[in-house]
Amino acid sequence: MTVPTGRRERKKAATRQKIAETALRLFLERGYDAVGIREVAAEADVAVTTLFSHFASKEALVFERDADFERCLVEAVTGRGPDEPLMAALRREVHALVEHCAAPGAAPVWRMIDASPALRQYEESMRLRHADALAAALAADLGLARATTACRAIARFVVDARALAREADDPRAAVEEIFVMIEAAWAATGARTD
């Protein structure tokens, strides 16, 4: 998560974090569908309008780091060192995302997500947004005006690698196995591999 620098930004970030933590605690204690937005706001001691100024929907409360994850994927492409190969940077970032998703205590959250059609749908739309942003970054890295089919396909593979790996018995090994295939597909596109 980006660390805010000014006092106002720090207060906003703290309020956002408090709301997200409160919501997740309530969802895990009582079930996602059993908890309403008003209850989350009351428990977090904020107005409903304040909650909605930080989160666009109830589902967004569960995926509080959505924007951070997207930014990290894009920055793996745009912010890598001049000598760091593209696929190595993406592999490193996916390992970090998987590590976050497989962290101790994450299993109950994923069970909750898997049990809720609304959360599964939100997660799928989130992954598609992340893939679109990553495809645009890949295209820009190649000097293209817009994302090609190859850029979009590789971006989806990379984004889906996180979901596949978090479900594996050995997430780290799964990322490595998946990236062997992603690198082969990237090489087959004829795009430069650095």
TrEMBL record:
InterPro entries cross-referenced by the UniProt entry: Homeodomain-like_sf (IPR009057), HTH-type_TetR-like_transc_reg (IPR050109), HTH_TetR (IPR001647)
Q: Does the keyword Transcription apply?
A: yes
According to the entry, every stretch annotated as the HTH tetR-type domain falls at 13-73
Q: Which residues bind DNA?
A: 36-55
Q: Which superkingdom is the protein from? A: Bacteria
Which keywords does the record carry?
Answer: DNA-binding, Transcription, Transcription regulation
Which Pfam families would you find in this protein's record? TetR_N
Name of the protein described by the UniProt record: TetR/AcrR family transcriptional regulator
* Organism of this sequence: Streptomyces plicatus
